[in-house]
Structures are given as structure tokens and as C-alpha cells.
Write a structure and sequence with these properties.
Blueprint lengths: L8 E8 L3 H12 L4 E4 L8 H4 L20 H6 L9 H14 L6 E2 L4 E7 L4 E6 L4 E9 L22 E3 L14 E5 L3 H13 L2 E6 L5 E3 L7 H8 L2 H9 L19 H14 L15 H18 L3 H7 L12 E3 L2 H4 L5 E5 L5 E4 L3 E4 L3 E3 L2 E4 L8 H5 L1 E3 L6 H4 L18 E3 L12 H21 L5 E3 L1 H16 L29 H13 L5 E3 L5
The protein binds ligand NA7.
Length: 540
């Protein structure tokens, strides 16, 4: 690989990140005859599935849906072992993608992109890495992920614990043996909810430190039956089209009835059916759950009732029951035996709302009323979501403006694809796109295809640059905010609004107008010759 030289290597595109987004982008660009290279910090592909190796990690979208659709042969040949495949299997799938499409020689591993600076005179990006690479690229594509910068808890002494600590988002590849250990885990988001049952089974004792309880729906995970798999494989084109045609990029049907218009009996029946079915589809029980507080309360009450049914100690059940935000406005969790775990003798729950953490100590952890001794601590404390990975890179557009500076008041994009003042810089599933509120695979394919089409259009029209206009960006940001304000999402202190990172501006970042609506808008923009974008002068 080229090292620092006076004449940087020239490429059509640099892609940052070798998760599903970066790999598919590379595959598309190569197929179109563009020169491109992926830079990846890890030593393997898979992104989220490469880093998040904690016990119990699995996707909260069913595997038949959380998989690529771009190659009909691939989707027919690949088989998933479970309804929700575990992390290791999704990582195997990611590696299969890299091998099947011969992508590895286009990916430079163990290399972190440190800066990307737009050279206005050349109309190109100067990209530098921590390995000394200097690349001049016409296009710079950020496939950096929405949840890829792990965050430690902001508590005194966080580095002072004498034993080992593990962050769920940065898990040792060799795994962790908790046998015989006293373990403390901080956090009760998705990662904690998935890992807690597994750690509890192994550890001598597990203490769970909860600041905010989360709503969780059982996955009802199953071994994949060949009948179910075949039934979907027989109608994959229709199945994928249903997903693309839906608000969340999911083929499962949403109920069009509003909870407030349903009878109590209808509501209980629907919630029970969705609970038995398992997973995120619970939020599709009624059309108004994320829009109407009264509707939402009926769903939240149902889940709180379930928590009390499962957890034997009513005091523990009460602490585990979320009360101060609407269900679904913090990411709904999907679990296998989470609430049941609190019936075990070797598991204790500490309510940090009643007794906050004062410090992490060499021995363990101290709250306002007790000290705890541990052999190891697990931080399931989440990520600097949506913007964290982008802001970690020194990205500078026109006039040397830093993206971080431009986004000081919150991210601003046009369609979550581009930023005014940063020509030919693209974000895959960036802020302002459906991203984390959709099936990521569907969103990734849609964004990658849009970018590939856009680059082809520019090449055909001998146009060196494309850049979102300020007006289009302003309108889009206003629209994303309006749509968000029309929902209950702003009522929760979630990572969707940046509330989990102290000092981060409170902005509801994903677009909740619906994947299908959004994709149609992107198609329309392209069909109108990239409406809302300024196209650079033709090169002659
Ligand atoms: P999340 O969902 O952000 O969860 C992080 C958890 O850690 C959450 O319960 C936080 O409580 C807790 N936390 C964070 N900082 C602290 C401090 N300082 N003290 C106590 N507790 C703390 O991250 P996950 O990794 O579980 O899931 C991220 C996404 O990945 C998930 O939504 C899926 O989309 C996949 P809080 O709620 O902030 O009070």
C-alpha cells in the first residue's frame, strides 16, 4: 500500500468503513469501472458485527430481512440457522460477502482515516490515514456506521478499576469467561439486555446497574425451519419489494388501525399476538403508537404488565418498568430471557435513579449508599451515535470549514446523503435519513445504489462535483425536524436525540417520514437532474 509520498495516489473514490455499507459500495463502484479503496480500522470486515462480540449479540431484525437483496443467487444460496442469527453468523455472512465478490484486495485493514480535506482547486478530496497513506480521491464516501464509537460512562474514576473492564461495543475477540466471577454491568440498553442473561448464567454473581429501564419484547427466536426459509425464498422478489415499500424497510405488515379507535379487547388481543410473535413488530400493533400519547400508553401498560407477570419480586419488577418516556421512543429492545434473569438468585438490580454511581473504584463501584466489589466490570453504555464516527475524522470542506464546526448545533444534511459545502462527500445512512429507524440493510442498499447512480451520472455528464445547496439542506433539515416533532420521539432522552452524550446538541437525527416516502424522494431528486444539488462545471 502506498505510504506518504509527495504525489498521492489518485482514486475515483475512497470509502471509509468495511461494514455492509462499505463492502456493497466497493462492489457497486468496481462493477461500474470506478477505482476505489476501502479503509477499515479493524482487521476484518463486518463493522458492527466485527466489533460487537459480547455474549448474546444478535440483530433485532429477522435474518431473512437483514441480508442483502442485490444478488438473487446469493439470497437463494445463503441459509440462516435461526430466525435472528447470532453475531458470529452475521459476521460469517459478512466474510462470505467479502470473499464471494472478491472485495478483500480493495480493503486496507488496520487503517483509520484521520482526515479528509477538500481541495477546491482540484475538486478532489485529500484523504490521510494513521498509516501514512495520502490519497487524492474525486469522491469520499463515509460508510462509518451509526453506532460505531463506543462511549464510557461519565463517572469519576472510570479508569481506576484494578480488574478487567469490557465495553460491549469493543469486545475481545477471544471472548470472556465469566465463570466464578463477581461481575458488575452498567447500562440496560439493547446490548445489556442481550448480554445479561448469558453473563448471569456463567458468572458467580451479576449486579446490574440501571439508570433508565427499557421496554423489551421477547425475540421468540427459533431455529430456522427449512419450510419457513423456503416459503420466503420462493417469493423473495415480492418479500423484498414489500420491505422497500414500507415505512421501516420491513416486510412484516403494519396494522392500519389506530389504538385509540380500537376496543380494549382488540388492543389486548393485538398486543398479545405481537408479543407472542416477538420482536420489533410490536410497535406496528397500531398505527398511532409513536404519534399519540394515549395510544402509546396502552402499549406501554401492556408491556409493564408483562414485566410484572414475569419478574417474581414486585419491587424489582417496578424498578424494571419504564415510566417516564413513551414506548418506542428509546430504541425498543428485543431479548431472549431478559426479565426472567432477574428471578435468578445470583442476579441483583441496582436502581441508579435512587442511588447514583459516585465513582468507579479500584475494587469495583461506589453508589450513594453502598460499595460493590467485582472481579470485572462490563460497560454496556452505548455509543456516540449518528455523528460520532464522522466527527472523529477531521473532515474539511470548502474554505477549510470543519464538518464538526458546521454541525456544532447538530447535524445538517440534504437527504442524509450530502452536506452543503462538502462537494462529493457522501454519508451512507447518514443523519437525516431513515437509517436506524429502518432495516439497515434496506437503507444501505438504497443509499449505495443512489450514490453509484449519481457518480455514474456525473461521469456521463463530465461533471466533476455535486454538492447539496444550502437552500435544499435547510428545507430538508426543517422537514426532518417537523416530521420528528409530529411524533413522540422528542419526549425521550435517547441516543436518537443525542441525549446520552453530555453537551451534544439535542436534535432528533434520523428521518421518521418513512423509508418508502424517503426512497421515493431520493428517486425523484435524481430524476429531476439532482434537484437541490449544485453540479460543478463540466470538465473539457
Ligand atoms: P444504549 O441503548 O445507548 O444503552 C446504553 C445504556 O447505558 C443505557 O441504559 C444508559 O442509560 C446506560 N448508561 C450510559 N451512561 C451511563 C452512566 N454514566 N451511568 C449509568 N448508566 C449509563 O446502547 P446499547 O449498546 O445498549 O445499544 C445501542 C444500539 O445498538 C441499540 O439501540 C440497537 O439499535 C443496537 P440511560 O438510558 O442513558 O439512562
Amino acid at each position: 500500500m502506498p505510504q506518504s509520498t509527495s504525489s498521492p495516489e489518485q482514486l475515483d473514490a475512497v470509502i471509509v468503513g468495511a461494514g455492509f455499507a462499505g463492502m456493497y459500495m466497493l462492489h457497486r463502484l468496481r462493477g461500474l469501472g470506478f477505482s476505489a479503496r476501502v479503509f477499515e480500522a479493524g482487521d476484518g470486515v463486518g463493522g458492527t458485527w466485527y466489533w460487537n462480540r459480547y455474549p448474546g449479540a444478535r440483530c433485532d431484525i429477522e435474518s431473512m430481512e437483514y441480508s442483502f437483496s442485490f444478488d438473487p443467487t446469493l439470497e437463494q444460496q445463503w441459509s440462516w440457522s435461526q430466525r435472528y442469527a447470532p453475531q458470529a453468523e452475521i459476521l460469517t455472512y459478512a466474510n462470505h460477502i467479502a470473499d464471494r465478490y472478491q472485495l478483500r484486495d480493495g480493503i486496507q485493514f488496520k487503517t483509520r482515516v484521520t482526515s479528509a480535506v477538500f481541495d477546491e482547486a482540484a475538486g478532489r478530496w485529500a484523504v490521510a490515514t494513521d498509516q501514512g497513506d495520502q490519497i487524492s480521491a474525486r469522491h469520499c464516501i463515509m460508510a462509518t456506521g451509526c453506532l460505531s464509537v463506543p462511549k464510557l460512562p461519565e463517572v469519576p474514576g472510570v479508569d481506576s478499576f484494578a480488574g478487567p473492564t469490557y465495553h460491549t461495543g469493543y469486545w475481545p475477540h477471544e471472548g470472556v469467561d465469566f465463570s466464578g466471577m463477581r461481575v458488575g454491568i452498567i447500562g440496560t440498553g439493547s446490548s445489556a439486555i442481550q448480554s445479561i442473561p448469558h453473563i448471569a448464567e456463567q458468572a458467580a454473581h451479576l449486579t446490574v446497574f440501571q439508570r433508565t429501564p427499557n421496554f423489551s419484547i421477547p425475540a421468540q427466536n427459533l431455529t430456522m425451519t427449512r419450510e419457513y426459509e423456503q416459503e420466503i425464498k420462493d417469493r423473495f422478489p415480492e418479500f423484498r419489494a414489500q420491505a422497500r415499500d414500507s415505512g421501516f424497510g420491513l416486510a412484516s405488515p403494519a396494522n392500519e388501525l389506530a389504538a385509540v379507535d380500537a376496543t380494549e379487547e382488540q388492543r389486548q388481543r393485538e398486543y398479545q399476538e405481537r408479543w407472542d410473535q416477538g420482536g420489533l413488530g410490536f410497535l406496528l400493533s397500531f398505527s398511532d403508537i409513536i404519534y399519540d400519547v394515549n395510544a402509546n400508553a396502552t402499549a406501554a401498560n401492556f408491556v409493564r404488565g408483562k414485566i410484572h407477570e414475569v419478574v417474581k419480586d414486585p419491587k424489582v419488577a417496578e424498578i424494571l418498568s419504564p415510566k417516564d418516556y413513551p414506548i418506542g421512543t428509546k430504541r425498543l429492545c428485543v431479548d431472549s430471557g431478559y426479565y426472567e434473569t432477574f428471578n435468578r438468585d445470583n442476579v441483583a438490580l441496582v436502581d441508579l435513579r435512587a442511588t447514583p454511581i459516585e465513582a468507579i473504584t479500584p475494587e469495583g463501584l461506589r453508589t450513594s449508599d453502598a460499595s460493590y466489589a467485582f472481579d470485572c466490570i462490563v460497560f454496556a453504555t452505548g455509543f456516540d451515535a449518528m455523528t460520532g464516527a464522522l466527527n472523529k475524522i477531521d473532515i474539511r470542506g470548502r474554505d477549510g470549514l470543519a464538518l464538526k464546526e458546521k454541525w456544532a448545533g447538530g447535524p445538517r444534511t440534504y437527504l442524509g446523503l450530502q452536506v452543503a459545502g462538502f462537494p462529493n462527500l457522501y454519508t451512507i445512512t447518514g443523519p437525516g435519513s431513515p437509517s436506524v429507524l429502518s432495516n439497515m440493510m434496506v437503507s444501505i442498499e438504497q443509499h449505495v445504489d443512489w450514490i453509484a447512480d449519481c457518480m455514474t451520472y456525473l461521469r456521463e455528464h463530465e461533471t466533476p462535483t455535486i454538492e447539496a445547496t444550502v437552500a435544499a439542506e435547510d428545507d430538508w433539515v426543517a422537514h426532518v425536524n417537523d416530521v420528528g416533532e409530529g411524533t413522540l420521539f422528542p419526549l425521550a432522552n435517547s441516543w436518537y436525540v443525542g441525549a446520552n452524550v453530555p453537551g451534544k446538541p439535542r436534535v432528533f437525527t434520523p428521518y421518521i417520514g418513512g423509508f418508502n416516502v424517503y426512497a421515493e424522494k431520493c428517486r425523484d431528486v435524481a430524476a429531476k437532474g439532482y434537484e437541490g444539488f449544485a453540479l460543478g462545471a463540466a470538465v473539457r
